[in-house]
Specification:
Elements: H1 20-41, H2 51-66, H3 109-130, H4 134-180
Biased composition (Basic and acidic residues): 50-59, 151-167
Region (Disordered): 1-85, 151-181
Biased composition (Acidic residues): 60-69
Length: 181
């Protein structure tokens, strides 16, 4: 036997479930009560049994959502005191007809920074290709030095070839002279 005596507790012994029909009846009663209160607030302009009034009140559930002037019921003292909080942002639902799809889209900070970064990179590459940046100037100077070194090496090789060719020609002449003797 577990601690505490009996298995289970006192909770959940006598649960009562309401049927869907009872719930619907309660909702209908609340709606009827709300209609009567509205009629009393309006000053009883129309008769209670007026069919036009009843038809309007039955459709009022759907039309209340569509109205722009519809506001939620204020709770507590909110209805008595008007509070202007500059930090409070009220989210107003916009209709599809009010949306401005053709206007320019506002970019986030990250998107703006990324676009600026890409534009700066493109500007730098244009300047670099034109030879106006410090790095481009240093690269061009380095290339000029390398070209001079290669030209000098090419001249030196050419001179060595000429010297080698002259030596080989001179050696052949000596051989031909020595053979003729």
């Amino acid at each position: 036997m577990p601690k505490g005596g009996r298995k289970g507790g006192h909770k959940g012994r006598a649960r009562q479930y309401t049927s869907p029909e009872e719930i619907d009846a309660q909702l209908q009663a609340e709606k009827q009560k709300a209609r009567e209160e509205e009629e009393q607030e309006e000053g009883g302009e129309g008769a209670i049994g007026d069919p036009k009034k009843e038809k309007k009140s039955l459709d009022s559930d759907e039309s209340e959502e569509d109205d722009d002037d519809y506001q939620q019921k204020r709770k507590g003292v909110e209805g008595l005191i008007d509070i202007e909080n500059p930090n409070r942002v009220v989210q107003a639902a916009k209709k599809v007809t009010q949306l401005d799809l053709d206007g320019p889209k506002e970019l986030s900070r990250r998107e703006r920074e990324e676009i600026e970064k890409q534009k700066a990179k493109e500007r730098y590459m244009k300047m670099h290709l034109a030879g106006k940046t410090e790095q481009a100037k240093a690269d061009l100077a380095r290339l000029a030095i390398i070209r001079k070194q290669r030209e000098e090496a090419a001249k030196k090789k050419e001179e060595e070839r000429k010297a080698k060719d002259e030596a080989s020609v001179a050696g052949k002449r000596l051989q031909s002279l020595s053979l003729n003797k």
